[in-house]
Design a protein that fits this description.
Shape of chain A: elongated
CATH superfamily of the largest domain in chain A: P-loop containing nucleotide triphosphate hydrolases
Order of helices and strands of chain A: HHEEEHEEHHHHEHEEEHH
Shape of chain B: elongated
Low-confidence stretches of chain A: none
Largest interface: A-B, 29 and 24 residues
Order of helices and strands of chain B: HHHHHHHHH
Helix content of chain B: over 70%
Radius of gyration of chain B: 18 Å
Number of helices of chain B: 9
CATH topology of the largest domain in chain A: Rossmann fold
Distance between the termini of chain A: 60 Å
Oligomer: heterodimer
Structural class of chain B: mainly alpha
Mean pLDDT of chain A: 87
Distance between the termini of chain B: 25 Å
Strand content of chain A: 15-25%
Number of domains of chain A: 2
Number of helices of chain A: 10
CATH architecture of the largest domain in chain A: 3-Layer(aba) Sandwich
Structural class of chain A: alpha/beta
Chain lengths: 268, 231
Amino acid sequence: MTSSTPDALWGAPALRALNPSAITCTDLVRGGLLDRCSLVVPVGMRLLLVGQPEESASMLVRIVAGLSRPQHGRIEIAGLNDSTAGGWGRRVAYLGPEPGIHAWMTPREALQLAARLLALPASEAARRVERALAWVRIPADIADRPVGPGGPPLLQRTGLAAALIADPEVLLLEEPLRALDGDERARLLRLPGQRRTVVLASHHPASEEGLVTHVALLRDGQVALLASLRDLEAAGQSLSMRGILALGDARSAAEAARSTERAQAAAR
Amino acid sequence: MSQAVTVARLATRELFMTFRLLLILLASAGAGAVAGLLPAPPGLMTLLAAGFGLAIVVAAAVAAWSLAEERFSGRIGWLITRSVSRATYLVGWYGALLLVAVGGLAAGGFLGWLSIPPGSVVIDATEYVAAIVGVAATCGLALAVGLLAGALLRPRGAMLVTIALCAIATILVVLLPGSTAWLPGGALVALAGASEIEPVVDVALRAAGVGLVMAAGVLVVCQVVLERTDL
């Protein structure tokens, strides 16, 4: 594996206590969707990102992936703000709703291309290709046929496999694998690895049950809520847009009340 | 293997699988083949130059369509998220298109040369090669313009704008014959008027230089545009 720090090390309490950040976004501005948006995602967090408007969560993920450019702001991944292959380019993978794979390519060719772009040695590339094909359950005979006739399900499986070839430390998902049935989608997205950080932008939070540990709400271009699922549960809310908004409103109200108390105390 | 070479190979295969490679080759080589099939018409060089001009427009339109389609289909994004920089992507696609188009022009040029009657005093070999080099440089510029349009517009719009820009350049070259060497497409005029323009080598090579410098400039602008584009 290419990761600089193995899973066993990330699992060590001492290192986890340091709470190192995988992604740090600072003051991102983009059109009407992000307005000085700042977010820190610790290593190993599985974060569900939802937004109001819905596109804001997708835009944040696309900006971190390098597909869209912010008008202002800074992104660091693993402490680096260099998105090239020499920086964090090869430690991050992205999978969106449209995988962007040529229809005439076979799944195996797409994965071999992904491995070639990562400059992996031939033997390691072959090993990872087979492992990724096995993970997404593409049988050998399908792996050597063009993805086009297989339709969106095969394209999306291939897209996920290509994303996993890099064994990424940060995996950015935007409405992934919607062409697959719920159970299969959940199985494929339950990716192993304690050090792997996953950010999942979704318009359907309820369908991400079991895939994430935390949830972030973007409202009016800023992070209005960052909470664990336990917090959500403790507040009596479910993993749904309504539940997340309710917790966000409750936290905002509590914060506003605290601010008022502080102001009154200062005035006295 | 560098990422640019990998992208160029991928681009060539995409052009092949979608028959666009065949279109470019047929247009370029076809210009020379048509000239060769005709029984030595009086305006042979003009016909050859017009055929190459048309082939260049076809190649530029394909470049525009291709880049725009790659953007909108998310295929550029797939490569960008595999740590391929936008500049590398642009270099790869430009290299692939240039290789295919210049290969076609070389084949067309060879067929065109065969069609010149033996002992003809219209143009000698050195002048002919210089003129073809100038035409290839013009093609390089047209491809860069096509890619710029593709970086800015949707596929159909990019293709139409590229064709319109090529038409404007052609009109300018025809209307301003005195400035032949300083305008893109000047090498085509030098090829067409080989018997009247003296010396052809100077004019063609100067036009080639102008074409290459302008192509570099357009590619830089294209890179800047692509850097700011959502993929």
